[in-house]
Write a structure and sequence with these properties.
By secondary structure, the protein is an alpha/beta fold. It has 2 domains: about 5-95; about 105-235, Nucleic acid-binding proteins (OB fold (Dihydrolipoamide Acetyltransferase, E2P)). Helix content is about 40%, strand content about 20%. The chain has helices spanning about 5-25, 40-70, 85-95, 110, 120-130, 140-145, and strands at about 115, 160-165, 175-180, 190-200, 210-220, 225-235. It has a 5-stranded mixed beta barrel. Strand 5 (about 210-220) and strand 6 form a beta hairpin. Helix 1 runs antiparallel to helix 2 (about 40-70), helix 1 (about 5-25) runs parallel beside helix 3 (about 85-95) and helix 5 packs across helix 6 (about 140-145). It is elongated, with a radius of gyration of 25 Å. The two termini are about 50 Å apart.
């Protein structure tokens, strides 16, 4: 491959990656892949890709101008191996061709389903404890039941959580899990947290459908651990939230 052609492809791929990540950032889909705290770093990366692409195109332009001025063709110079371009092309193709979507229950086979989490600390427990019960999400409730020995103090409190529906053989009739993935760094390290729900019309719900569950908290033992369960008073179907993941 001629040097100028190689540099042209390199510049186009850099520009393509820049546009791809910029689109994901503008559409809010970046947080389907990474923790929101890494967004500023990703924005910096997008700018850096744009600068690199500009440098490559400027170099190509200067090379052409130099050839016109000197009348000499330097395009016969050897370029790096074309295989190097695939390291940029492959991830770009994967990102474009595979539709973006948040993790669903299909990932449970590899990531598992948890009703407790190790991502807790005494400070976070105090902060969640002081939060209004109806503003706590699934991660908040699980944190409280992990760290507080006296879970009876939460029984009867009102809960209002958002998650997707998951039916499991371990649950009884008219029960389901309301689930949410927790992402610490990126989707690859995400794991699912779930709270069991009692709802008389559970059979009418669809697997992976997103719902808003409102009801009262009850303390039960599941897999030899005390976990929170919601006695639902209302289960409302909702669309996938703009931010489907929870961040510890």
């Amino acid at each position: 491959m001629q040097s100028r052609m190689y540099r042209s492809f390199q510049g186009l791929l850099l520009l393509g990656l820049c546009i791809f990540f910029a689109f994901k950032a503008a559409s809010g889909q970046l947080t389907w892949y990474i923790n929101s705290r890494f967004i500023p770093l990703t924005i910096f990366g997008i700018i850096f890709l744009a600068v690199l692409a500009q440098v490559v195109f400027t170099e190509i332009k200067r090379s052409r101008q130099h050839e016109l001025e000197t009348g000499r063709d330097h395009d016969h110079d050897h370029a790096p191996a074309p295989v190097n371009l695939w390291f940029m092309l492959v991830p770009l193709l994967i990102g474009v061709l595979i539709p973006a979507r948040p993790l669903t229950s299909s990932a449970f086979s590899t990531k598992g389903l948890n009703t407790n989490t190790p991502l807790v600390s005494a400070n976070s427990s105090v902060q969640v404890f002081e939060t209004d019960s109806e503003k706590r999400n699934i991660l908040d409730w699980v944190k409280l039941f992990n760290l507080e020995e006296n879970t009876s103090q939460f029984v009867g409190q009102k809960a209002s959580v958002i998650g997707f529906v998951y039916f499991d053989e371990s649950l009884g009739e008219n029960q389901f899990f309301v689930s949410r993935f927790v992402v610490s760094c990126c989707a690859a390290d995400g794991f699912a947290l779930a709270m069991p729900v009692d709802w008389q019309d559970a059979a009418a719900l669809e697997q992976d459908s997103w719902v808003l569950v409102k009801g009262k908290i009850e303390s039960i033992i599941l897999n030899d651990r005390v976990v929170p369960k919601i006695i639902a008073e209302a289960v409302t179907a909702i669309s996938v939230p703009d931010q489907p993941y929870l961040f510890p």
